[in-house]
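Weekly modeling sync, notes
Attendees: S.R. (lead), two postdocs, one rotation student

Agenda item 3: backlog of single-chain predictions. S.R. asked that every request posted to the team notebook include the full sequence so nobody has to chase files. The rotation student volunteered to paste the first one in as an example of the format we agreed on. Action items at the bottom.

Example entry:
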Amino acid sequence: MGPVGEVRGVNDDDGVPPIAGGPGFVRRTVVLEPGVSCRSSDAEWADALVIVERGEVGLECTAGGRRRFGAGSVLWLTGISLAALHNEGTEPVVLVAVTRSRAGPQIGGVAGPS
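Predicted structure, as returned to the notebook:
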């Protein structure tokens, strides 16, 4: 794995209120600085729809396979045996994850509501 550096997780909002008794949603932003790699797992992204807002993120699976996804990509990271995230580019990678507020995953070090 490459250099380990700062990975920032930010709670963007307190959630979108439920509509007609349904679940609300929580949006989180995760920033992976240039040249940084971090360990990750499927569990960190459970129930999250992930959008690559900026940059190009490299996903590495436990079997060693790697794929890169650029800005505009929409990802579902559950069930892929995720091992690490990589930013081999020159600009920060910005990932926006949306989860149902009833779930309490931890994404980029930021815990969702329980």
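Discussion: group reviewed the output briefly. The first strand starts at residue 7 and ends at 11.
Action items: rotation student to repeat for the remaining queue; S.R. to check formatting next week.
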